[in-house]
Amino acid sequence: MRVIEHEGWRGRGHDDFRDIRGVICHHTAGGGSQDWRIVQFGRPDLKGPLAQLVLERDGTFRVIAVGVCWHAGRGSWDGWPTDNANYHTIGIEAVSRGDGSDWTPEQLDAYKRGCAAILRRIGRDASDCAAHREYSSEGKIDPAGIDMGAFRRDVQAFIDREDAPLSAAEVKHIEDFIVGYVGPIGSDVKDIREQLAGEGARDAGEYPGWKQLGDKTMVDALAEVLRRLDALEKHAA
Question: What's this model's pTM, rounded to 2 decimal places?
Fold first, then answer.
């Protein structure tokens, strides 16, 4: 996974954890390349850091802080202290406008892999991966547009290393291979079809024939040649 370590992250945080029990998934509700600044430095009404990690749209993680961050707010999740998840969870702020329409495949893939890596490291499973909206009692909606049931299934697959989905990079590699290999073959097939069926007959069902063959296709022209040869042989006999 691609990771950027922000200078000072090892000493950054509001306090030390009591223990770490899970991960809370967020979106930044900005969507820009500078969203991380708010997460690291905070807002006028809330001092940063606001999450330990920022996930960029290209799948790169920014490591912002190692200590407690103000990301969870009030809420509850099975096995976590009510209204005190900041001291027991890692927060991931994924860069997004917040309307659920701008997630990239690379980002979603990294989101699942990152959650899985953290949970495996702390000895937890995907049930301890919660959306902010699932945990929150304050009406949060993040991360918008992500089906957390399906998300957790993929996270668990990564934790178990069983039937894990292909990464976005792996999918891209396969797509590039198919385009590079099948593309020329597809063009060759169309070229051959045109030679057999007539000029411009590059799609199925088109048989215009060739003018130099009397508007006959190659097959029809060959059949005509054979017919005439047979007639000549019979005449010679």
Answer: 0.72
Residue type at 82?
A: T
Q: What is the pLDDT of residue 134?
A: 98
Sheet of 22-27, strands arranged across? 3-5, 61-63, 53-55, 89-94, 22-27, 129-131
Residue 221 pLDDT: 84
Report the 3 state secondary structure along the chain: CCEEECCCHHHCCCCCCCCCCEEEEEECCCCCCCHHHHHHHEECCEECCCCCEEECCCCCEEECCCCCCCCCCCECCCCCCCCCHHHCEEEEEECCCCCCCCCCHHHHHHHHHHHHHHHHHCCCCHHHEEEHHHHECCCCCCCCCCCHHHHHHHHHHHHHCCCCCCCHHHHHHHHHHHHHHHHHHHHHHHHHHHHHHECCCCCCCCCCEEHHHCCECHHHHHHHHHHHHHHHHHHHC
Given this model, what pLDDT does residue 207 score? Answer: 79
State the pLDDT at residue 66. 97
* CA dihedral of residues 225, 229, 235, 237 (deg, nearest 10): -170
CA-to-CA distance for 151 and 141, rounded, in angstroms? 16
* 93 close to 51: Cβ distance less than 8 angstroms: yes
- State how far the alpha carbon of 137 is from the alpha carbons of 23, 29, 134, in Å: 17, 19, 8
Whether residue 226 is predicted with pLDDT greater than 90 in this model: the reply is: no
